[in-house]
Write a structure and sequence with these properties.
The protein is mostly helical and 289 residues long. It has 2 domains: 2-23 and 125-288, no CATH class; 29-111. Helices cover 62% and strands 4% of the residues. It is built from 11 helices and 4 strands, in the order H-H-E-H-H-E-E-E-H-H-H-H-H-H-H. The protein starts with a helix and ends with a helix.
């Protein structure tokens, strides 16, 4: 345990909450194109929540510009056209009857500014947080499967960072979950960093040894190859459940009940099993080539 704690401490030292905070904090500007005040108002209501505090509404209003208004900047990050008006390539349509479609289209094509977009505009938070959670959960499943194949040289190019020989699977998975906590907090407009998220980090670290024990037990009882699936699925499910719990905490200010946690984990394990099967199949396929 002492060795694992030392590894985790080294892993945590490589995390960069300042970078995550800076990336999410950059301003994202919108240019709106419409034929009349009514359409402009609909798009502004979509981007600037009516129930937001006056100071927040004022800041967002300074980032959302109507085409044709005096003082409009020459360049904005995103251009949104009213429904029924076709814009040029690289612009987006506000689907007034289905704003979720607009959100999906913008998030899908703007991964580089997605954290800042969701940080500023609440309409984008849920899908961006979901992308963060799924991405980190898959990274952890990939790492869990890779460490279960010691005789292989797995392709870890999909991982954003790796710790080298010092990082056990527990250290990597735990540190990556803490990194996820930083990213979710930044997207949700919450304070980011070790000092601000002590309780969340302690909870993540405390659960690390529990998932490792379960994964080892399952992997040890299944013939070679089969143990990869539960280990990867558990890594995915635990990470996903932690992420959804953080989302609930930051969005609603409350935690999941025990029954809700079980259901989230159950669903995530099924999804994680499919992810792990895909990862393991790809890895074993390369060996057989």
């Amino acid at each position: 345990m002492l060795k694992a704690l030392k590894q985790a401490r080294t892993a945590f030292s490589l995390l960069s909450p300042d970078e995550i905070r800076s990336r999410a904090g950059r301003p994202v500007t919108f240019g709106l194109v419409a034929a009349g005040d009514g359409a402009f108002a609909e798009m502004e209501d979509f981007l600037i929540p009516a129930d937001a505090p006056p100071a927040v509404r004022a800041r967002l209003a300074g980032l959302v510009c109507r085409a044709g208004d005096p003082g409009v900047p020459e360049k904005v990050d995103l251009v949104l056209y009213e429904h029924g008006v076709a814009g040029p390539k690289g612009t987006y349509t506000f689907h007034r009857g289905d704003p979720g479609r607009t959100v999906t289209e913008i998030v899908r094509e703007n991964d580089d500014i997605a954290p800042a977009l969701a940080h500023r505009y609440p309409a984008f938070r849920a899908p961006v947080v979901e992308r963060v959670i799924q991405s980190v959960a898959r990274e952890n499943a990939l790492f869990a499967v890779a460490t279960a194949l010691p005789d292989l040289v797995p392709n870890l190019g999909e991982l954003p960072w790796a710790f080298g020989e010092f990082a056990s699977d527990t250290a990597f998975l735990t540190a990556n979950q803490v990194r996820m906590a930083f990213r979710i907090a930044a997207v949700c407009g919450r304070p980011v960093g070790f000092a601000h998220q002590k309780a969340e980090i302690v909870t993540i670290a405390a659960g690390a040894f529990g998932w490792r024990a379960i994964a080892r037990e399952l992997a040890g009882k299944i013939p070679f190859g089969g143990g990869l699936i539960p280990k990867g699925a558990i890594a995915y499910a635990v990470t996903y459940a932690i992420g959804k719990g953080l989302e609930r905490l930051y969005h609603a200010g409350e935690r999941y009940t025990r029954a809700e946690r079980r259901e989230v984990y159950r669903q995530a394990f099924e999804r994680g099993r499919s992810v792990a099967q895909s990862i393991a199949g790809s890895a074993l396929g390369r060996v057989n080539q």
